[in-house]
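Help wanted!
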Amino acid sequence: MSPLIKIKGVRHAYETASGPLPVLDGLEVTVNEGGFCAVVGPSGCGKSTLTRLIAGLMHPDEGEVWLHGELVKAPRSTVGMAFQNPVLLEWRTILQNVMLPLEIVPDGLKGAAAKDRARYLLSLVGLDGFEDKRPSELSGGMRQRASLCRALVHQPEVLILDEPFGALDAFTREDLWQTMHEVKEREPFTAVLITHDLREAIFLGDQVVVLSGRPARTQYVMEIPQIAKPTLDDLYTAEAAERLTILRHQIEIAQGRATPEEAS
Amino acid sequence: MNPTLRKVVVPTLAIVVFLLLWEALVWVMGWPNYKMASPSDLIPAFQQYWDLFLVMGWQTLWRTVLGLLLAIVVGTLLGMIMGFSRTMRDALYPLLVGFNAIPKATVVPIVALMFVGAHDFNTVLIAFMISFFPIAVSVSIGLSTLEPEYRDILRALGASQTMIFRKIALPKTLPEFFGALKVSVTLAFIGTNLMEIVSPHGRGLGALFDSGKTNSDYPLMFAVLIALALLGIVLYYVVVALEKIFAGWAERQPH
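Answered by r_m:
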């Protein structure tokens, strides 16, 4: 497996009225092709900045972001994004919403092929029969499913998920975790997931990156061996509990509430 | 009663009840028609002057619509400029607020003097001046409050600014735009009538009203008020119909 995303020594600061505010300082992330990298860290540590860097929506002050062996300099159509807010367009039907990226990317599917592709993805996430509904007629979880389809419709190399399940209730969220695994089996993608939920991170990720408090650097990386067809029961094993304990401790260090010495 | 029937019958009944109450009030108080004309006095007025009502009504209508169309074009452009550029918003907003704060009744005589004799031009100008502000403000707010995620979704795919405007900003602003248009259409109508009443030898329903006043034909004055109300209702519902067509999605269906 080759690295698809490579983030090397990235530093970035925002200009504010009271001088520069450093948000990223020494960020190192590598994600292999087909990998699923979950990024956790304290609130406001610069996680969303990371997604904007990978998407090419902004440039770091220092350091490099590589995607598929190319330096990211500008937005590229090989990226799909989903946010905590599903941002579906209210004036479009669900099907038309999912087809939106195909209208923009160069040589995207057109006409019937585009519709078939969108319908196929909607059925994959369990939204058959909702193609002609408006977003306002769907529940929060269903909207997030549709938003996921939109992020995948143009077969992006990288799927960027910025807390997509953060605003959902616990049961809906767990349903969507399962859906993610099912979708990944049929529609392979490389993903970077920003999350606050450690269980989500170890259930979906094959790699969990813990960022330090602001300015964020890569503080800890945990590799998680993948098992075939994971279920929610896999979150209640001794191994899972051990991983969660380690990660929680790392978060406490990142928040400045514990010191590394206490770890062992 | 089925819903479509109710939509026609209920408002019609309400109007009939209103007219009956009006008639009864004038009758009970024993008011002469120069104090307050009753609906039954208006019918002869309409019968006597129906051709004038048609000609004058048409003049009022086209000037109002033309003024409103100008307001839409200029208001949308100003709104876009202020919506996309913070600097321009900071620069233009106080000017616009100040301009809007001036009661247009005071501008009417100035415009009438400035372009003396150009009735059509004057009237359209006032209709435009009084009605563009809500449109400019709503478009600029609609554009400047676009959530950044909407932009990011398209920008991340390499969409250009015009593409983002066409696919997202424009349709997303339509409900606000139509909300403002409903206010503007009424304002433009007021503007037209202000000018028609004030300017000498004017045209339109305002001038007809003025001639009723000069000739002490009180039922005619009241009849003009009713004609104005009817025209106002028609204009308003034309905007509502357009809104249904272009921004019907914003109306939540009851579940």
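OP: Thanks! One thing I noticed: Chain A touches chain B through 28 residues (CB under 8 Å).
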